[in-house]
Each structure stands twice: as structure tokens, then as C-alpha cells.
TrEMBL record:
Protein's recorded name: Probable transporter MCH1
Primary localization: membrane
Organism the protein comes from: Amanita muscaria (strain Koide BX008)
PANTHER family: TRANSPORTER MCH1-RELATED (PTHR21576:SF45), UNCHARACTERIZED NODULIN-LIKE PROTEIN (PTHR21576)
Segments crossing the lipid bilayer: 49-70, 82-104, 116-135, 147-167, 187-206, 259-287, 348-369, 375-400, 412-430, 450-470
Gene3D superfamilies for the chain: MFS general substrate transporter like domains (1.20.1250.20)
Length: 477
């Protein structure tokens, strides 16, 4: 009877933790819905394309500089601390955007420059919130279920990928006015309340078992132990503890040429993909509709965001399952790659294939996309390519450079797509601005045609880099 009384509260806490992990992940993608505000920001606040790109881009790229900090926060203080930080940032960002939009009327010719600067600041806060939220759900799931790390982390990433679809569906169904135009004030207020509440709950629910002992370690580098981990199993050899104490920190990968090649791959492949994600609304609206009476711009652009989200989410689940079957991840034991199941193909294949897909998608868009009905190819191709690469990266980093410093190494690597997103987003903005007419909107495929030609070229470079890495890592992945 006593053991049963002990199990019940533990099971309840596990259920609550799983619900909190899922809630954090599904509500974390608010920053990806900021492009839905673009039509209203042009008409309401008279922002131009460069300003719109800067606002959206800030939210996208600000996730990356703090990736290493968020990873170390999880290691040292637990995912619940990341969730608390995310709650604060979300309330500041989305609440601030709502207040700022409500201050100005449509009759205003041009808002003061401080309005644009405030939007950039709030977008920055949204990006900070996103990375802390993402790490809270990802590492809470993987550390709570260490024996099922592939399934647990994959499910968390899939829900995160589904978040833009979930939030844009809410936006289009419940936050549009009689003119079928998104009400940004009400929608941003809702996001502030939703994300703040969910992540505050996560600050209470996401404590990882065994975390206290880990946090007390000055290096925050020992392996986590929880209720599913045998404490006596490793005592005779002590391989886990010894690996954690003698393994170097996150600096050695920087001395490995392969790490820099992987970083360049991320820059050239993920940079253009995130440029599309952050600007899909204006890319879509630049083209004419085939219909004589087209639907509202908000709903049409939202469908592209939803398609990106669906394809991104589905491919993360599919890629994770297929990769585990045909190329099980290696475990780094005493510097040696060990496979515990039969291995059929290198995991780098799941970098090579999406690189080719992205190159073909960008080429097709440059040559054939001339109406809004053609943009679905771009949304689908980018969603699949982007989701596949991001799904496979953590297992590659852990297999090559070890699990102990995965958070730190992955955080360092994320500076590459940070740079790529910045470069390609401003390339898009400058090309679009050069073709913008007096009314403030760029119309026609010339708004982005050059950008996609260049993106196709860099995707082919990433394809070559992945083939080179495939050869270098033969037998290790």
C-alpha cells in the first residue's frame, strides 16, 4: 500500500510535466506569426519593406545568440528556469506590440521613429522568449525520458513546428474583424496572456528529477540522473561519470574543420529557408491572384504560414522515425562511435537530400512562380527542407562531439543560421525595396527573383558541403 501511495503522486507529476512540455512547445511559435501583421503595419503605421523585414528578422535571428546561454541555463538551473524567463519575455514582447499598435490611428501620416524602434525591441524580446521556451520543452522531455530521447525530443520539436499553424488558425478564426482583417491589438494581447500563463505553469512543472545534484556541480557538466537511471549499474567502471569530468567543454569543436564545414552548411541552407519563413507574407502578396474575386490577404497569407508549419511538423516526425530505422545514431564511448543497432546509411543523407530540395525549390520559384497560386511550392519545399535539417542536426552533433556538451555545442552551431538569416533577409529586403513603388508595396516576381537565384546557388554549395562531410564522417554516423 505504501508503494502504491508513492507511485500515484509521481505519475501525476509526470503527466503534468508532459502536458506542460506540450503546452510550452505548441505555444512557442508566436514570433513566426509576426508576418501576419505586415499588411496592417503598412496601412496602419506606414512601415516600408525594410522596416517590416527588420522587425520580423529581429524576432527570427534573436533566437540564436542566446542559444548557448539557454542551453547552459538548462544544464545549471533546469528547464523550469528557462520557462520562467520565457514567460517574462513573452509578456513584454506581445503585450508591448499590442499597446503600441493601439496608440496610433489609421489617419496618422507617419508615426515617430520611436514606434519603429519599439517594434524592433519587442520583436527582439519575442526571439529571446522563443529560444528559452524551445529549450525548456526540448530538454525537459529528453532529460525526463533519457531512455527514449529520440521519441521524446522528436515529439517536442514536432509540436514546436506545429505552433505557427496552431496560432495562425486561432488568429484567422477568432481575431479577424468584419472586413476579414486581422485585429493585431486583440491578437497580440491574447498571445501575451496565453504564452505568459503557459510558461509560468512550466516554471512550476518542468523540474527534472536529479536536477539538484547537477545544478550544484560547478561545471554543470555531469550526466543527469533521474528515477529511470540505475545508480549502481555504472559503479564498477564509472564510464559515465569519468566521461563527464574529463571530456573537454564546447571549445574543441571550434578546432575541428568539420565543425566549420557544418556551420557553413547551416549558413547556406538554413539562412535562405528562414528568410522565406520570415517573409512569406510579403512574398505571397507581391504576386497577383488568379481569382477575379480573391479572398482576404490576411487569410491567404495565413494559409502559407500554415502550409509551412504543417510540412515542417510532419517532416520532423517522419525524418526522426526513418533516421532511427535506417541510420541509428552512434554513441560516443571513450572517443569511439558505437552503434547498438544495424546501420544502413549515414545520417548526413538527411542533410544532403533537403539541400537538393531547397535548391530545386528556389530555382522553381524564380522561374515559374508568377501568381499567388504558385507560392505553395515554395512554402512546402522550404518547410520540408528546413524541418529535415533541423531534426537531424542534434543527433549529428552528439554523435561527432559527444552528448555531454550537446547543449553548448548546438548553441554555438546555431550562430551560423543566425548569420545566414540576417544576410539573406536583408538581401531580400534590399532587392524588394529597389522594386517598390510609391504606395509602399512591391508588386511582381521581380521583388524576390534575384534573391531566389542567389539562394538556389548557396543551397547547391550546402549540397557540396554535405557530400564532403559524408565522406569525412564515414563510419561515424
Amino acid at each position: 500500500m505504501s508503494s502504491q501511495r508513492h507511485v500515484r503522486p509521481l505519475s501525476l507529476s509526470l503527466v503534468l510535466k508532459c502536458l506542460s512540455i506540450g503546452a510550452n512547445a505548441i505555444c512557442a511559435g508566436g514570433v513566426f506569426t509576426l508576418p501576419l501583421l505586415s499588411p496592417r503595419l503598412v496601412s496602419h503605421l506606414k512601415f516600408n519593406q525594410l522596416q517590416l523585414t527588420t522587425i520580423v528578422l529581429t524576432g527570427m535571428v534573436s533566437q540564436y545568440p542566446l542559444a548557448f546561454v539557454a542551453g547552459r541555463t538548462v544544464d545549471c538551473y533546469g528547464p523550469q528556469t528557462c520557462s520562467l524567463i520565457a514567460a517574462i519575455f513573452y509578456c513584454l514582447s506581445f503585450g508591448g506590440i499590442s499597446v503600441e499598435i493601439s496608440r496610433w490611428s489609421d489617419e496618422l501620416s507617419y508615426p515617430p521613429s520611436s514606434t519603429f524602434h519599439l517594434f524592433v525591441f519587442y520583436s527582439l524580446m519575442a526571439g529571446f522568449a522563443t529560444v528559452f521556451s524551445y529549450y525548456s520543452s526540448l530538454f525537459a522531455s529528453s532529460k525526463t525520458f533519457p531512455n527514449y530521447i529520440g521519441i521524446s525530443s522528436g515529439a517536442s520539436m514536432a509540436l514546436f513546428g506545429l505552433s505557427p499553424l496552431f496560432l495562425t488558425t486561432i488568429a484567422t478564426k477568432w481575431f479577424t474583424d468584419d472586413l476579414v482583417t486581422l485585429d493585431p491589438v486583440k491578437y497580440m494581447s491574447f498571445l501575451a496572456a496565453l504564452t505568459g500563463t503557459v510558461h509560468l505553469a512550466g516554471a512550476l512543472a518542468l523540474k527534472v528529477p536529479g536536477q539538484k545534484a547537477t545544478a550544484s556541480n560547478l561545471e554543470c557538466n555531469l550526466v543527469l540522473v533521474d528515477e529511470n537511471t540505475s545508480l549502481l549499474h555504472h559503479l564498477p567502471d564509472e564510464p559515465i561519470l569519468r566521461a563527464a569530468t574529463v571530456r573537454p567543454g564546447p571549445i574543441p569543436p571550434l578546432k575541428d574543420p568539420s565543425f566549420w564545414m557544418l556551420a557553413l552548411f547551416c549558413l547556406f541552407a538554413l539562412g535562405p529557408a528562414e528568410m522565406v519563413i520570415s517573409n512569406i507574407a510579403t512574398i505571397f502578396l507581391a504576386l497577383p491572384s488568379r481569382r477575379p474575386f480573391p479572398p482576404s490577404s490576411t487569410n491567404s497569407a495565413a494559409r502559407q504560414v500554415q502550409l509551412l508549419s504543417i510540412s515542417n511538423t510532419a517532416v520532423r516526425v517522419i525524418t526522426g522515425l526513418i533516421a532511427d530505422l535506417v541510420s541509428p545514431a552512434a554513441s560516443l564511448v571513450n572517443g569511439n562511435a558505437v552503434f547498438y543497432r544495424k546501420h544502413f546509411i549515414s545520417r548526413v543523407f538527411f542533410m544532403t537530400l533537403p539541400s537538393l530540395l531547397l535548391a530545386l525549390t528556389f530555382l522553381w520559384t524564380s522561374v515559374f512562380a508568377r501568381t499567388q497560386a504558385d507560392v505553395w511550392v515554395l512554402s512546402f519545399g522550404v518547410g520540408v527542407g528546413y524541418g529535415t535539417i533541423f531534426t537531424i542536426l542534434p543527433s549529428i552533433v552528439s554523435a561527432i562531439w559527444g552528448m555531454d556538451d550537446l547543449g553548448g555545442n548546438f548553441g554555438i552551431l546555431m550562430n551560423a543560421p543566425f548569420a545566414g538569416t540576417t544576410i539573406f533577409s536583408y538581401l531580400y529586403a534590399l532587392v524588394s525595396q529597389a522594386h517598390t513603388k510609391a504606395d509602399g508595396m512591391c508588386i511582381g516576381s521581380s521583388c524576390w527573383q534575384l534573391t531566389f537565384w542567389i539562394s538556389a546557388g548557396t543551397s547547391l554549395i550546402s549540397l557540396g558541403l554535405s557530400v564532403n562531410l559524408w565522406q569525412k564522417w564515414r563510419g561515424r554516423l
